[in-house]
Amino acid sequence: MLTKSRQPRKQRKARYEAALHERQKLVHAHISKEARKKLGIKRRAVAVREGDKVKIVRGKFRGHSGKVSAVNLKSLKIYVEGAVARKAKGAEVLAPIEPSNVMIMELEMSDVRRKEMLERKGEKIPAATGERTG
Fold first, then answer.
1. How far apart are CA 43 and CA 38, in angstroms?
2. Across-strand partners of 93?
3. pTM over 0.85
């Protein structure tokens, strides 16, 4: 929790002045039900990382799916391949997208620390036989 205040100005200030480890929490996005079931993950959201395959569910690029090419913790935005905006001179640039407006369809699991984090949190779903794991 960044601040206990409900005042919008203090909420904005807390986001603007947040430390790097707190900003990582602000770039979380929901994981699709299929991906959760496939990986055996109970948690609904996880931090978005480069290489994750996401589907944009809100905004101008709704329905577009692609790979996350960059995550900017300074501006708290992500950049998805194929979601491009056209500049005044005609150049195309990746459009910044709010992480809460995407759904993670497939996690990039090449990162050892990410795997460890999921295992550490006891994310394995109990077996259908009634046995508990963890």
1. 13
2. 85
3. no
3-state secondary structure at position 127: coil
Tell me the two tokens of residue 50: 């480069």
In three state form, how does the secondary structure of 64-111 look? CEEEEEEEECCCCEEEEEEEEEECCCCCEEEEEECHHHEEEEECCCCC
Residue type, 63: G
Encode pLDDT of 13-55 as tens digits.
999 999 999 999 999 999 999 999 998 888 899 999 999 999 9
By three-state DSSP, how is residue 56 classified? strand
**DSSP 8-state secondary structure symbol assigned to residue 60:** T
Fill in the amino acid letter for 107. L
The token pair that represents 58 in the structure block? 């809100």
Domains of the chain in sequence order: 11-120 (2.30.30.30)
Helix (H) or strand (E) holding 114: helix 112-120
Is the Cα torsion angle 55, 56, 58, 63 positive or negative in sign?
negative
Main-chain dihedrals φ then ψ at residue 91, nearest 5 degrees: -70, 145
